[in-house]
Backbone:
């Protein structure tokens, strides 16, 4: 999320996960300006229970799951991969609401956070954390 300050600058909303027992963190950042969305992510891939970080070149944390719908995640990469594939199937079959439900359920059970940017009728950005959603424009 971003909020416009009187200076014209943007303050991004970020979703980050610190991995227990490590000095690393995975993070995604979303910014919004009118009908434009910006999603940024680091390249650190982490999975709970691993002894070291899985730094794999080319593995993305921001993915387009369908026409005009992009998802970024922070947290467990393996769980997110499965959830993103299921969300894509639901998006194409039923719609964006069903895709968000898949991600909500995964965030509840895997402690993975998501930011969904959809640009269907208008720009809509949603943060999903611990199974709950919050429209970024409302923060």
Residues:
């Amino acid at each position: 999320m971003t909020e416009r300050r009187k200076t014209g600058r943007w303050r991004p909303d970020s979703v980050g996960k610190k991995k227990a027992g490590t000095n690393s963190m995975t993070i995604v950042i979303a910014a919004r300006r009118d009908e434009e969305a910006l999603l940024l992510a680091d390249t650190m891939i982490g999975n709970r229970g691993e002894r070291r970080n899985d730094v794999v070149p080319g593995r993305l944390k921001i993915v387009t799951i369908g026409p005009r719908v992009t998802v970024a995640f922070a947290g467990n990469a393996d769980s997110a991969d499965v959830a993103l594939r299921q969300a894509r199937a639901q998006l194409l079959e039923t719609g964006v609401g069903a895709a968000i439900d898949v991600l909500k359920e995964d965030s509840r059970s895997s402690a993975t956070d998501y930011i969904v940017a959809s640009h269907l009728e208008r720009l809509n950005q949603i943060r999903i954390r611990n199974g709950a959603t919050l429209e970024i424009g409302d923060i």
The CA atoms of residues 60 and 136 lie 22 Å apart. Residues 1-11, 18-23 have pLDDT under 50 and may be disordered. The helical segments are 77-93, 96-110. Strands lie at 2-4, 10-18, 25-33, 36-41, 62-66, 69-74, 113-119, 123-129, 132-135.
